[in-house]
Design goal:
Enzyme class: transferase
Strand order of the largest sheet: 6-11-10-9-8-7
Keywords: Glycosyltransferase, Pyridine nucleotide biosynthesis, Transferase
Structural class: alpha/beta
InterPro entries: Aldolase_TIM (IPR013785), NadC (IPR004393), NadC/ModD (IPR027277), Nicotinate_pribotase-like_C (IPR036068), Quinolinate_PRibosylTase_N_sf (IPR037128), Quinolinate_PRibosylTrfase_C (IPR002638), Quinolinate_PRibosylTrfase_N (IPR022412)
CATH architecture of the largest domain: Alpha-Beta Barrel
Family: Belongs to the NadC/ModD family.
Distance between the termini: 33 Å
CATH class of the largest domain: Alpha Beta
Shape: elongated
Strand content: 15-25%
Number of helices: 10
Pfam families: QRPTase_C, QRPTase_N
Helix content: 25-40%
Largest sheet: 6 strands, parallel
CATH superfamily of the largest domain: Aldolase class I
Length: 301
C-alpha cells in the first residue's frame, strides 16, 4: 500500500532547486557506464529509426528525478524530445502518464534502465518523505533526513527529501559540527566540548546530542544551533520541551528527535512540541516506485 494519497493536479513543492548540473551529469555518467559498458549489444538488434516512448507511473507517488532522467536520455541522444506532463514534486495517482519521449529507437532503449533507476529511487524517497510530512501536518514539526544515504547519491537523495516536503540535515561531515558522546568523553564534559567546537569552527552550525535532561540544560546554557534529544522516553521528551521552551531559554534553540521513529509514532512525537524529527529510513530504506518506459505511440498524439 502506498503511504501517500495523491490527488491529480496537486501542486509541486515550491522553490525546489536540483543539485548543480555537473553533479547530475556525473551521476548519470557513472550509471550509463556501468550499464552500457563497451556497448549495448541488445539495442544493436533494433533498427535505429525515429520512435516514441511513454513513461508510466503505475502507483500513487511523488514524482522526483526528472533532471537525472532527462540527462540519461540526452547523453545518448542530444536531439531527444521529452515532454513532461507533471512537475517535479507533484503527487500523482496510479496509471499516470508522466512524460512522452520522441527520439531514436536505440538510445531510447539504451537509456531506459538507468533513467528509470534514478526516477524510481528518487520518487520512492520523495514519496516516503511526503508520508511523514503528512503525518505531522499542523504540528509545526519539520521532517529531517540524515547522512544514511545510498553511497554516491547523497545530493540526489537529499534533493528528493526536499521534493517530498522534508528538510535537509547537514550534507556531510564538513558543513556542520555535531557533538556526540565521543566528543564529551574526549573533552571531559559537554560544556567543554561545546566551547572547544565553537573556538575551532566559529562559522559552522553546531548541533549537540544529549542523553539526559541534565545534559540538555547544560547545552541550552552553553548555546548552540540545535539540540538532538536521542532515544528519550516520551515523558523525558515532553520534559525536555518544557525546559527548552521555559525561562530562561524561551525556545531559542530548536529540539530534534531521532531514534525509534516510524509512521505510527511520528505524530505523537511531533505533538509533544519538538521542532524537528530526523529519520534515517527516509533515504536508507528505499522502496522504488513502479514505473515503466515503453516504446509506443504517444497517447493523444
Amino acid at each position: 500500500m502506498n503511504p501517500v494519497s495523491p490527488a491529480p493536479g496537486s501542486a509541486s513543492v515550491a522553490g525546489l532547486v536540483p543539485p548543480p548540473a555537473e553533479v547530475v551529469d556525473s551521476d548519470v555518467a557513472r550509471a550509463l557506464s556501468e550499464d552500457i559498458g563497451s556497448g549495448d549489444v541488445t539495442a544493436e538488434l533494433l533498427p535505429d529509426a525515429a520512435d516514441t516512448a511513454v513513461l508510466l507511473c503505475k502507483e500513487a507517488a511523488v514524482v522526483c528525478g526528472r533532471p537525472w532522467f532527462d540527462a540519461c536520455h540526452r547523453a545518448l541522444d542530444p536531439g531527444v524530445r521529452i515532454d513532461w506532463r507533471v512537475a517535479e514534486g507533484d503527487r500523482v495517482p496510479a496509471q499516470t502518464v508522466l512524460a512522452t519521449l520522441a527520439g531514436r529507437t536505440r538510445p531510447l532503449v539504451s537509456a531506459e534502465r538507468a533513467s528509470l533507476n534514478f526516477l524510481q529511487t528518487l520518487s520512492g524517497t520523495a514519496t516516503r518523505v511526503a508520508a511523514y510530512v503528512d503525518a505531522v501536518q499542523g504540528t509545526g514539526t519539520r521532517i529531517l533526513d540524515t547522512r544514511k544515504t545510498l553511497p554516491g547519491l547523497r545530493q540526489a537523495q537529499k534533493y528528493a527529501v526536499r521534493a517530498g516536503g522534508g528538510v535537509n540535515h547537514r550534507m556531510g561531515l564538513h558543513d556542520a559540527v555535531m557533538l556526540k558522546e565521543n566528543h564529551v568523553r574526549a573533552a571531559g564534559s559537554l560544556g567543554a566540548a561545546i566551547r572547544a567546537a565553537k573556538a575551532r569552527h566559529p562559522g559552522l552550525p553546531l548541533i549537540v546530542e544529549v542523553e539526559t535532561l541534565a545534559q540538555l540544560e547544560e547545552a541550552l546554557g552553553e548555546g548552540c544551533d540545535r539540540i538532538l534529544i536521542d532515544d528519550f522516553t516520551a515523558e523525558d521528551r515532553r520534559q525536555a520541551v518544557r525546559i527548552a521552551h521555559g525561562p530562561p531559554f524561551g525556545g531559542r534553540i530548536p529540539l530534534e528527535v531521532s531514534g525509534g521513529v516510524d509512521l505510527d509514532t511520528v505524530r505523537g512525537i511531533a505533538e509533544d512540541g519538538v521542532d524537528y524529527v530526523s529519520i534515517g529510513g527516509l533515504t536508507k530504506h528505499v522502496r522504488a516506485i513502479d514505473l515503466s518506459l515503453k516504446l509506443a505511440a504517444v497517447p493523444g498524439g
